[in-house]
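Duplicate of #3305? Posting structure anyway:
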């Protein structure tokens, strides 16, 4: 005969789950307090009675008869609250002597799931934070700026970094958009939190949506058991960098816009919204206004992003940076290849006159190539690729109009004075005074795109 000791009853009664035990004849031997409360019945109304006398559709007697457990069964049976139940046969000496059912109420399951989601989010954030130093290692100190145009770009980026605004970086490929994104993050109040980056062009619409917003278990075929947290939640307190934002599906752009405005997201397959705390930095090398006309980019999202736009100039519009960038790349190459590398004046002149359609990335590749082609340790003109050699400086000047040459001369004279007076605001005022022009005129001449 199946018996339950007082100590066993005490253990079962402290559980939040409902516990019911019957013998091999289907008679209730024990029901804990949670189970009795669930049925709203007193102990004497349950214990000693056949289970099916008051619960005609109970499955526990069937488990006793078959000797096989039933797991994760979802039941409602006309009651106010749905629940999950696991039912097991109880055996002694190989014979079934009864059965036990353990009920998890839906409300408790929901609490457990919410706690699990919070734990998973916290765990992912911690893992991301551990990788923080590897993920965002660029700072503004590593952005080389000698040209007045790029100096002003850097100063603007530093000012915007101090805010928590969403940022749009517009630049050609190879100009260092992610370097700016990481620097903005490391200069912001979010610097101690995680920095995550994703290239929107690498995903189709559905994949990118689940990557950014996450998904619930069973949201689609192949969905990970337990669901997946999205990058917008994983980057809690930190920064999410969305490169090539122009290539995001236009339907997904609407969801991103809402996330930016409401600071809430809804994972794929979920009915519940979740609050987010993340700064978004976007970047693209496309003309978004043309994309809007073509119906490929939302106008409202563009206006939302365009309030804090940073335009990173291509190398051909900041030639004053070229020599400094060359020396920086050469220093890195010296450490990498463990040998001395130099650049001749003639070779440097060619590098400074080239238009660099591939920008800094192209410049780096050219220097890598030339370092292998040169005889000895010095990169000379003959070591450079043929397309770089063709632009020898004379051609560069001869192809300019008189107005372009005058503007170039004016800019060079301003830059000479700034090297003496400095590139601070006070220094610029002093230069403007010496040249007898207004400060606004000085800025305009520095920003002239004569190339």
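Output from current build:
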């Amino acid at each position: 005969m199946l018996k339950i000791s007082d100590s066993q009853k005490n253990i079962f009664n402290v559980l939040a789950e409902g516990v019911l035990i019957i013998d091999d004849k289907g008679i209730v031997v024990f029901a804990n307090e949670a189970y009795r409360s669930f049925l709203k019945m007193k102990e004497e109304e349950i214990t000693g009675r056949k289970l099916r006398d008051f619960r005609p559709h109970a499955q526990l007697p069937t488990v006793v008869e078959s000797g096989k457990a039933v797991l994760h069964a979802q039941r409602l049976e006309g009651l106010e609250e749905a629940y999950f139940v696991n039912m097991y046969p109880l055996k002694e000496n190989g014979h079934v002597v009864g059965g036990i059912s353990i009920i998890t109420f839906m409300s408790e399951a929901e609490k457990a799931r919410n706690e699990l989601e919070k734990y998973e989010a916290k765990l992912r954030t911690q893992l991301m934070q551990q990788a923080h130093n590897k993920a965002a290692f660029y700072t503004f100190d590593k952005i080389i700026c000698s040209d007045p145009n790029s100096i002003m770009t850097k100063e603007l980026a530093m000012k915007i970094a101090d805010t928590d605004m969403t940022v749009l970086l517009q630049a050609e490929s190879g100009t260092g958009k992610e370097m700016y994104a990481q620097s903005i993050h490391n200069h912001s109040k979010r610097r101690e939190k995680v920095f995550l980056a994703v290239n929107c062009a690498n995903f189709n619409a559905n994949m990118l949506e689940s990557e950014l917003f996450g998904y619930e278990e069973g949201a689609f075929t192949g969905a990970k058991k337990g669901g997946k947290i999205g990058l917008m939640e994983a980057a809690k307190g930190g920064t999410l960098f969305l490169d090539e934002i122009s290539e995001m599906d236009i339907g997904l752009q609407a969801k991103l816009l809402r996330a930016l405005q409401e600071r809430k997201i809804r994972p794929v397959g979920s009915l519940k919204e979740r609050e987010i705390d993340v700064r978004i930095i976007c970047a693209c090398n496309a003309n978004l206004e043309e994309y809007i006309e073509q119906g490929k980019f939302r106008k409202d999202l563009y206006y939302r992003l365009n309030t804090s736009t940073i335009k990173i100039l291509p190398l051909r519009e900041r030639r004053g940076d070229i020599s400094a960038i060359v020396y920086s790349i050469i220093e890195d190459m010296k450490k990498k290849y463990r040998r001395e590398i130099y650049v001749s004046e003639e070779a440097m002149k060619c590098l400074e006159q080239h238009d660099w359609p591939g920008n800094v990335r192209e410049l780096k590749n050219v220097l890598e190539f030339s370092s292998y082609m040169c005889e000895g340790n010095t990169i000379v003109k003959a070591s450079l690729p043929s397309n770089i050699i063709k632009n020898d400086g004379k051609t560069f000047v001869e192809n300019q109009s008189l107005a372009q040459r005058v503007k170039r001369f004016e800019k060079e004279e301003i830059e000479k004075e700034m090297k003496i007076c400095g590139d601070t605001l006070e220094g610029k005022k002093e230069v403007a005074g010496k040249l007898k022009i207004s400060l606004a005129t000085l800025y305009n001449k520095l920003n002239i795109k004569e190339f």
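Confirmed duplicate; merging threads. The two ends are 98 Å apart (CA to CA). Residues 239 and 279 are 5 Å apart (CA to CA).
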